[in-house]
Write a structure and sequence with these properties.
CATH superfamily of the largest domain: MFS general substrate transporter like domains
Shape: globular
Oligomer: single chain
Number of helices: 13
CATH architecture of the largest domain: Up-down Bundle
Structural class: mainly alpha
CATH topology of the largest domain: Growth Hormone, Chain: A
Radius of gyration: 21 Å
Number of strands: 0
Length: 383
């Protein structure tokens, strides 16, 4: 089997396990603690490692062979997931979640380094990203119905063991891939350690845009249930439809991502990207003014689709333009996205409490509008 096919299958299996994991770990933590405070700490256990340690993990990873490091981290993740299955203390459980997230970051950064070494050519990269995200979206669509069937046979804790097995298999699939040289390691000066610096370029502009637009995704994931509750008396049905359509939007975005990449790649001034960002701005403003659940769900689904296109194009841009430092750019994007997610969960919740959810939506809209203008101005001036 070709190396790129092994990479694709490994990634899809890994993300399938992650979807099960994210779904059940909330239930497990709550069942152990029965305290909402620990759910907040659980959210921090996902966010803080990306925010604080992504760049450090990238620096450390650049000193080692990416293939070996992925296998090593996946083995450790397997062990941690088994320990989560056994853990009965909520503090220990949160520490294990935090540690697992650190290893997941290392695995993902090194995975991107493998991709740019194994998948050659612009068209091949676009197709690889499209296929990976399409199959991952299919897996995500199947997770909830599969979970409903599984829980008739096994417990939530035993679902964690399923994730552990999928993680282990995803690591084993990396083994047959031929030796991969570490491009970042080759470009580091062997005798003089220099402080890492980023050249201000189009990739940095994309990181800024993706980070700000991720606020919309963070908002919909965190507060959509509040919006639906305010405007509809059938919360369960409304939220179920919302979750399904958000996943479907990501699936459709993945299928069409290559066509989007082909169009945006020819746009050196950032007009098309800016237009996409402004469309999200319009959807968010409209949803804040017209308090209709159906329109809100449509707006969030359309915004998520556009966001996924921009995010996938950004990944392709790093892979194509910055393959020698792919881990550094992905790590920086993780940090920027983490900052906006922390803002959303902290400042956002305060703003909603002091005013209302619609005012916060307007605030996010104005931030997106301002950032889009800045992005458009900077993108056309950079290489």
């Amino acid at each position: 089997m070709k190396s790129k096919n092994l990479l694709l299958i490994s990634k899809v299996l890994n993300e399938t396990g992650d979807w099960f994991y994210y779904f059940v770990i909330v239930l497990i933590v709550f069942s152990v603690s029965h305290d909402p405070i620990y759910l907040g700490l659980l959210s921090a256990s996902y966010t803080l490692p990306n925010l604080i340690f992504s760049n450090l993990i990238s620096n450390i990873s650049s000193k080692f062979n990416s293939k070996k490091l992925i296998i090593f981290t996946e083995m450790l993740r397997f062990i941690l997931l088994v320990l989560m299955f056994l853990a009965t203390n909520v503090v220990l459980l949160l520490l294990l979640v935090f540690s697992e997230q650190m290893l997941a970051i290392a695995s993902d950064l090194n995975y991107q380094n493998l991709v740019v070494n194994v998948v050659k050519g612009k068209t091949a990269l676009k197709l690889f990203n499209k296929n990976t995200n399409t199959w991952s979206s299919v897996a995500r669509l199947l997770v909830i119905p599969t979970y409903m069937i599984l829980t008739k046979i096994i417990s939530n804790r035993e679902v964690l063991l399923l994730d552990a097995v999928l993680t282990l298999v995803s690591g084993i699939l990396i083994l047959p891939i031929n030796f991969i040289r570490n491009l970042q390691k080759e470009h580091k000066t062997p005798h003089i350690e220099k402080k890492k610096t980023f050249t201000f370029n189009k990739s940095i502009c994309l990181i800024l845009l993706v980070g700000v637009l991720n606020l919309v995704i963070g908002f919909s994931d965190s507060y959509a249930i509040s919006y639906i509750n305010l405007n509809n008396n059938k919360l369960g049905i409304g939220y179920s439809v919302f979750v399904f359509l958000m996943t479907l939007a990501e699936f459709v975005a993945s299928i069409l991502s290559k066509k989007f990449d082909d169009v945006i790649e020819k746009d050196f001034t950032g007009k098309a990207l800016s237009l996409c960002s402004l469309i999200i701005f319009v959807f968010l403003v409209a949803a804040s003014l017209f308090h209709n659940v159906a329109f809100f769900i449509f707006s969030m689904a359309a915004s998520r689709m556009i966001y996924m296109w921009i995010k996938l194009f950004s990944l392709y841009s790093y892979q194509d333009r910055n393959k020698d430092h792919i881990m550094d750019y992905v790590a920086l994007q993780n940090v920027v996205m983490g900052c906006f997610l922390v803002f959303n969960s902290s400042i956002g919740s305060i703003l909603i409490k002091l005013s209302n959810i619609y005012i916060y939506m307007i605030f996010i809209s104005l931030l997106i509008f301002t950032t889009t203008l800045i992005f458009k101005s900077l993108y056309k001036r950079t290489n």
